[in-house]
């Protein structure tokens, strides 16, 4: 099979640190989120995010941005390379913290913002790996009927978003390693680009041309290219250390099993 022409792009985490914070480049993020949410997303501004206040080590492993949309929602977009203990709790904390920090002191609950958390992950999160995009949200159903609740309009208080449970955070987890590189729709075009750091010329998803042009590796000047290459070298080194540690643990486990079998055979002969 002949490989289609493509354009090499910088990694998305580096784009978050650099070009995507420029208002002129919001169209890249808008294109991706529009494909993911399956509705038009317009970004008005980028706000201070959790990652911007984290330690230096956390910044290298995880980078994020917080977008304010035309509908006054908040969308956390993060890229994380290495797994961490209590990942799920950290994810829940990040969404809850964003809700709290975006409600002013003394403001009514009606001003609580809808928060979405979108994670591009370079590690496995599922033991079976049967998908590459996972969506989580809070739903209320009858304990006996199992039917979803239809809330009274007086309790909803927010007619902007679709669905009565709109006030609760929603999560999108995208473990890129699980994507099989089989592009079926516009969202797959984005996932392919993030996983492989390239955009095929055949891609036509809204915003994908902006991704191709504005994240073009060849358009980096010499200083930017050195910084980006150094960034990649750091992660290759970190990844190597993690994989080495995993192998050492596995080797120790195998040695322990072998020693146990030897002891068992020895005791059996005595």
TrEMBL record:
Span list, region Disordered: 245-270
Please report a single Pfam family linked to this protein: PDDEXK_2
Q: What is this protein called?
A: PD-(D/E)XK nuclease family transposase
Q: Which organism is it from?
A: Candidatus Kentrum sp. TC
């Amino acid at each position: 099979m002949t490989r289609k022409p493509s354009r090499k792009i910088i990694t998305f985490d580096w784009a978050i640190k650099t070009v995507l914070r420029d208002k002129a480049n919001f169209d890249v993020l808008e294109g991706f989120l529009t494909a993911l949410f399956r509705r038009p997303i317009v970004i008005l501004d980028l706000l201070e995010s959790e990652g911007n206040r984290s330690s230096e080590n956390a910044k290298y492993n995880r980078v994020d941005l917080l977008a304010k949309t035309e509908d006054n929602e908040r969308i956390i977009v993060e890229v994380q390379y290495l797994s961490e203990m209590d990942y799920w709790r950290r994810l829940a904390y990040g969404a809850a913290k964003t809700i709290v920090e975006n409600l002013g002191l003394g403001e009514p609950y009606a001003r609580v913002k809808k928060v979405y958390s979108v994670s591009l992950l370079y590690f496995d999160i599922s033991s079976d790996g049967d998908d590459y995009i996972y969506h989580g949200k809070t739903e209320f159903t009858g304990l006996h009927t199992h039917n979803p609740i239809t809330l009274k309009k007086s309790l909803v208080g927010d007619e902007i978003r679709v669905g009565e449970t709109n006030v609760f955070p929603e999560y999108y987890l995208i473990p890129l390693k699980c994507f099989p590189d089989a592009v079926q729709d516009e969202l797959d075009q984005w996932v392919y680009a993030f996983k492989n750091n390239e955009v095929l010329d055949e891609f036509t998803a809204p915003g994908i041309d902006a991704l191709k042009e504005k994240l073009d590796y060849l358009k980096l000047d010499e200083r930017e290219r050195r910084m980006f290459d150094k960034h990649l070298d750091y992660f290759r080194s970190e990844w190597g250390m993690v994989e080495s540690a995993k192998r050492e643990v596995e080797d120790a486990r195998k040695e322990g099993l072998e020693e146990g079998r030897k002891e068992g055979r020895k005791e059996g002969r005595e």
